[in-house]
Structure formats: structure tokens, C-alpha cells
Amino acid sequence: MSMPSPAQSPSSSRVVLSEADIDRALTRIAHEILEANKGSRDLVLMGIPRRGYPLACRLAAKIAAADPSVSAAAIAGQLDVTMFRDDLQRQPTRPPYPTALPAEGLDDKVVVLVDDVLYSGRTIRAALDALVDLGRPRIVRLAVLVDRGHRELPIRADHVGKNLPTSSVEKVRVRLAEIDQVADEVVIEDWSE
Amino acid sequence: MKHLLSTQDLSKADAVRILDTAEEMAAVSDREVKKLPALRGRTVVNLFFEDSTRTRISFEAAAKRLSADVINFAAKGSSVSKGESLKDTAQTLEAMGADAVVIRHWASGAPVRLATSGWIDAAVVNAGDGTHEHPTQALLDAFTLRRTWARTNGTASAGTDLSGMKIAIVGDILHSRVARSDLWLLRTLGAEVTMVAPPTLLPVGIDGWPCTISYDLDEALAKRPDAVMMLRVQAERMNAAFFPSAREYSRLWGFDDRRLAALDDHGLSDTVILHPGPMNRGLEISSAAADSPRSMVLQQVRNGVSVRMAALYLLLSGESRSTARSQADTPDTVPAAAGTAPTEENAS
Known about the structure:
The structure holds 2 protein chains of 2 kinds.
Chain A: E1 12-17, H1 19-36, E2 43-47, H2 52-66, H3 72-75, E3 76-78, E4 110-118, H4 122-132, E5 139-147, E6 159-163, E7 170-175, H5 177-180, E8 185-190
Parallel strand pairs in A: 2-3, 2-4, 4-5, 5-6
Antiparallel strand pairs in A: 1-8, 7-8
Helix pairs in contact in A: 1-2
Chain B: H1 12-29, E1 43-48, H2 54-65, E2 69-74, H3 86-95, E3 100-105, H4 110-116, E4 123-129, H5 135-153, E5 166-170, H6 177-188, E6 192-196, E7 212-214, H7 217-222, E8 227-230, H8 246-253, H9 257-265, E9 272-274, H10 287-290, H11 297-316
């Protein structure tokens, strides 16, 4: 391209997870969470905006389906990490998203952080800081739909939908029906020129 | 948005963004740990050339809840009383590392001068200048009204505006920067505004303002406003005979017990009363009205901290104030081209 500005569209893109793949991965993660926790006791799923929250709701629904003693709405919440990011001064201003805790709060709970893509790990570091101000969970775990590597901090996921080895010129796009109004998919876009 | 100088040049999108951000800030104020690390390492200077209690304390609380360092400067007892100019004072403060200057000044236009003259690089927030504007007061009034309006309509307030809300602003319009800022902002947000005052307390040129004018408070109340905003009678600016006596003012334009009862007679169960404070009880508002369940005075003070947190956050975060720019691709963060306004969804 002759334009000095960033490319407007990727040079190529491929779908790596389809709607059915995402659903299967989430079903597996839901059962892994139940297994690791030996049941649904004290479980709270905190989704990180934007796409972590619908994923947390879906996981909560699957956990509620497997264990009728819990209600999905009572264990899913949203955790905004905007104010805790380490790149606030380097990025355009981001308006914060709502934080919504389940009615019972986070104290002595097993909190599973849920996000769509795990990359540098900086979002999760911010999430851990945000959690400290909201309560004192007994255990904090991490579930992600896609782990694409390139970690910059000593953080790892406990539950992973799919490990995607990527190069850093690629972008991983997660689209979810709840937010993007299209069928669920995970796409790798190649932005090299 | 680099400065917050007036509500007249505030777009609707920016106004709604500030109010939505303030909703999230309000949620923080309800938590056990009422602090966010967003402005750690930033310095906010409160530069007050005019007396103020709630605005200065509110800005101070807002900056501290965002982890910024706060320097309070009052003109009384400073070098200003030795004749130091605004320029020298501002440049001195910037040399000490101020990232934002919150200024209140008796001269209309002082904040604009500070922001546009090139004297300093810091973000300037107008905390009231002369009889010109007081934008954060208007934003907190709009925030309070938006919550009331959303409750009346049975919706969530995030992302909404004030379309269709009828608001009466009553009292000393002539000297009131709050009335001016409120009018511009409430109109931007879609509300209908009626100004109610004695003719002597209306400014020249009010015919060009986007509001209706009434000289009779009882008549204005009969038109079923959704909110009544009482303004303070500014005794320090009453340098002429604007009305015959305090008793007459109170009887004709004060929100007294009789008018409080009239709201019930009109069947206006959702109508609220606002006052920017400090109140002259018994003059523009009676104690019964100020302490009634309709009174939003304390909510306004509480919301003031949230709105000022939102304004400081939106002005002081972001790459525009930093030379370094991260090239890191962070797909797990908010994409800009997501379509809808951020806070409309996920609210649970």
C-alpha cells in the first residue's frame, strides 16, 4: 500500500474456531471448572469486558445445566479493568465499563476470571489488581477461549479453549453473537504487508 | 477533549460519555475501597480565586479517589494578594508539575484565557468563572436529573439523555453561571427549560436563549415541570436594588411550604427539587422543601464527586498527554469500531 497510515484491512484472514467449535470448547471448560473445583460450591465467574462477559454468562449457563442447584445469574459477574491498566497513558482514553458483582460478593469465593484472548497477560494483571479492591477471593483461576502466546508477564491460564500459536503481526478476532450481532467465530487476521 | 471550559461547546456525545463514565465512578463510591489507580502520578492543582466549599472539596475528593496528587491553592494568603498576575501564578504551578488546573475565578473568561493563551500545557477545568459558566455543576445537575428521569421512565440511566424532560430554573438568572451552564447542557441533552425570575434578575439578551421565560413561579409550577432548580440569591453580587425586600422575594419566587404542597395538589409525585448550594434557607427555599424527599440537594453533592472524577479521568488519561505510544497489539482490549456505545450493553 502506498498510504503511510496503517492498513485498512488484513492481507488475509482464516477462521480457526467456528460457532460449534466455540460451543464445544466452552462446554469442556465448564466441566473442567466443575472438576477442578470438585463441584459448583463457591464458584463465581467474572467476565472481563467486553467479550469475556458473554463468555462468562455462557459458562455459567453450562455449569447451571450440569448442576441444577446453582443459578447462572447468581454466579456470573462482570469485572471492568480499565482503571487498572498499565497503558492508560499510552492508549486513547477508554471509557470504563460497568462492574457487576454477584449478590454474594467475592469474599472466600473461587473466582474464575473469564476472557476471550490471552496474549500479553497485562489485562489479567489489571484484573487481579481490580479484584483486590472488591473482595478477598479464596482462589482465583483463569479461563480463556484462546491462548495465543507472547506472554509479557508471569501469568498462565488454568482453562484454555484453544491454544493458537500466532505471530505478533497477526490479530486474533473473537466475534460473539451477543456483542457483534454475527455468528460466533474466532478469526486469525494477517496484518503483515 | 483537552479542557473542560464550558457546556456550550460540549457535544451531546461528549456529554453522554461524561455522564456514563460518572455512572461507573458512582459505583466505585459505593464500594469499600473507594479508590482507583487511574491517575497515579498525576498532579491536579485546585486554583481558587473565589471562595468555595463544596466545589473545591468535591474536586479534591474526586482527584484523590483517582489516586492523583492534589495541591490546593487559595488566592487569599498567597502571592496573588501581593499582585502576582494570573499568568505568573499559572506558570509557577505548571513548573511544579501540574497536569491539570482546576480554576475558579471571579472574572468571566479566566479559564478560557488560561487554556488558550499558551501559558501552560496542563488541562484546564473551569470550576466557575464570574457569571459565565460552571460546567461541572451543570454536569452533576444533568447526572442527577438523568437518574431521576430514568427512574420516572423505568429505564436504566446509562446511555440515555433528557429528551422530553421539563425543567424550571428559578431565581437569580442574571448573576448565575450555573443557570447558563445548565441551560446549554440541558438543551443539548434534549430537555425543555423554563427560566423563572423577576424581570430585574434576567440578563439582557435572554430573548436569544433557547428557553421560555416566566415571571410567575406558581404559573410555572402549574405547567407540571419534572424538576425545579432553585438558584441561590447571590447576596455578594446584589449591588443594586434587584427586588424590594427579602420577604417579597421569598413570597414571589421562593420555593416555600405552600409551593411544596402545590406540587402534591398538581399530582406531581415525581417532581424533584434541586439547588446548587449553598442554600439560603427561608429565602429562595424553605427548610421543609430543602429537607423533603423531593430534595436532591445531597444527591447533587454526592454526584458531584462522581462527575468530577469522570471529567478528570477523561481529560487526564489517554495518549494525547503522553509522547510515548505503545505499539503493542492488545486484542483483549476494547476495539474502537465496536458499533454501539460502550455502556449500553453488559449492564447487569
